[in-house]
Amino acid sequence: MQSGSSGGEGEIIGGINLTPLVDITLVLLIIFIVTAKLIVTPAVPLELPRAARTEEIQVILSIVVPRQGPTLINGAAVGGDAALVARIRTALGRDAEVRAVIDADGAIPHRQIIHLLDLLRQGGIERIAFGALPPEPGPAGDGEPGRNDQGR
């Protein structure tokens, strides 16, 4: 018979080894730090407006894409893609800082807006925004502003 605590069978373990637990915790911490940096980076770079008073006048090229009819640039109808690009280049020639604002009907297909964005890039415009209308107030007392009754 052996006496003492030399690690024989049937002995109770008196301590817990914390080294593997600390190693796993540090590895998880490193993984979280790396992935957090990837998550914060935006996928699409945005140029957000700044709230500051200024006397600077911004030149805006208004592009309206109605559900039916031709595309309008600053209120004038444009016939085709070549004419649209020519009008864009003319506006860009007058002011290099021109911004395009696209107001499109909700029923316009996505591919048509992407095609318009491609034409704006071909024309040389880099600053593009999308216009939106506020929701229409519903009938008095229904409590739902902008409700669309077309599906009834």
Give your account of this protein's structure:
It is a single chain. By secondary structure, the chain is α/β, with parallel strands linked by helices. The protein is elongated. It contains three helices and five strands. It has a domain at 60-130: Nucleotidyltransferase, domain 5 (2-Layer Sandwich). Strand 1 (60-65) and strand 2 (71-73) form a beta hairpin.
Specify the CATH class of the domain at 60-130.
Alpha Beta
Q: What is the name of the CATH architecture of the domain at 60-130?
A: 2-Layer Sandwich
Mean pLDDT: 76
Q: Strand order across the biggest sheet?
A: 3-2-1-4-5
Q: Based on CA inertia axes, which overall geometry fits?
A: elongated
Order of helices and strands: HEEEHEHE
Helix content: 25-40%
CATH topology of the domain at 60-130: Nucleotidyltransferase, domain 5
DSSP strand tally:
5
For the termini, the CA-CA separation is 92 Å
Relative strand content: 5-15%
Give me the secondary-structure category.
alpha/beta
SS summary, helix count: 3
Low-confidence stretches: 141-152
Strand count, sense and closure of the main sheet?
A: 5 strands, mixed
User: Radius of gyration, Cα only, in angstroms?
Assistant: 31 Å
Protein topology:
Elements (H helix, E strand, L loop, with lengths): L18 H22 L19 E6 L5 E3 L2 E3 L2 H14 L4 E6 L5 H14 L4 E3 L22
Parallel strand pairs: 1-4, 4-5
Antiparallel strand pairs: 1-2, 2-3
